[in-house]
Amino acid sequence: MTEQTSESKGEDHRVRVGAQRREKTRLRLLESALAVFTEKGPDSAVIDDFIAAAGVSRGTFYNHFKTTNELLLALATAMSDEVLQIVDPLVLHLDDPVERFSAGTRLYMQMALRYPVWGSFITQVGTRIATRGQLIDIYLTRDLELAKSKNRLTVDSVRVARDIVLGAIFYGIETMLTEPTRANHPELILRSVLVGFGLAPAEADRIAFMPLEIPGAVEGPIFSGLKASPKASGASARRQTVRAPDPRPS
User: Fold this and answer.
1) 120, 103 in Cβ contact below 8 A?
2) 182/186 Cα distance (integer angstroms)
3) For the segment 21-74, what is each residue's pLDDT rounded down to a tens digit?
């Protein structure tokens, strides 16, 4: 009995060590993939690029991913989820579902400015890979469904509302990273979206520009290797108030 128990423990140990080694290799592939995609773009990179960057064999690559698209999806999912791990707990502090998805939208977009390498990556891969079926899709749909059930929004379809918000998030991030914009670009987007969803302009202003608690650094295994933009990270870990622009003509 004792001998069998020892053998069982030994087998369990080997399984754990093997799983840890496999996860470590997978993480190395994801970390190196971000550098490759950043340098070459998601459409030009080939498997040999990832093998060389990660320092693994072709067989090892195929043990984890069948195609570069599968690797691309895994990287987009992992990084988006790491952001949401610190954003969603702050969102859930709010009782109003409209305030929830508005705050989540603003914080997610602001994170793309704090980590421009990530922001550039998610806009390059497109919303199909960056959002479809991922946590950002799930959380946003959750809050929109609750808002509709409470008659806080006037929308015919939650799916349509979700598509509008997700499109605004990713197109807005690209605009902020590539074009000159106002500092409150996410808030201006949200105000227009909220008015379109049936809120009175005054309430849309209040929600779009309400103070937010800005989360600290993203500490997930992939983000831990990224540097935050000094300009964007200065507002970290304190409450931030964005003033609504004066609607009067200048």
Assistant:
1) no
2) 9
3) 888 898 889 988 888 888 887 778 888 999 999 899 999 999 999 988 888 888
Q: Are 90 and 213 in contact (CB under 8 A)?
A: yes
Helix, coil or strand: residue 93: coil
Look at residues 189, 73, 80 and name the one whose alpha carbon lies nearest to residue 136: 80
Query: Can you point out the beta strands (E) in 34-127?
Result: none
Burial of 234 (0-12, 13-18, 19+ CB in 10 A): exposed
Distance (Å, whole) CA 55 – CA 35 = 13
Is 187:176 a contact under the CB 8 Å cutoff?
A: no
Helix/strand/coil for 174 = helix
Q: Is the pTM of this model over 0.90?
A: no
Kindly give, in sequence order, each residue whose CB lies less than 8 Å from that of residue 66, ignoring residues fewer than 6 positions away. none
Maximum distance among all alpha carbons in the chain? 86
Q: Tell how many helices (H) and how many strands (E) occur in the chain.
A: 12, 2
pLDDT digits (tens, 9 = 90+) for 39-53: 887 778 888 999 999
Decide if 29 contacts 65 (C-beta within 8 A). Answer: yes
Provide the angle, in degrees to the nearest 10, between the axes of the packed helices 116-125 and 68-91: 120
- Tokens encoding 190: 């949200």
Q: CA separation (Å) from 2 to 5, 6, 98?
A: 5, 6, 60
User: Within 10 Å of residue 246's Cβ, how many Cβ atoms?
Assistant: 7
Query: CA 233 from chain center: how many Å?
Result: 17
Structural tokens at position 23: 């996860």
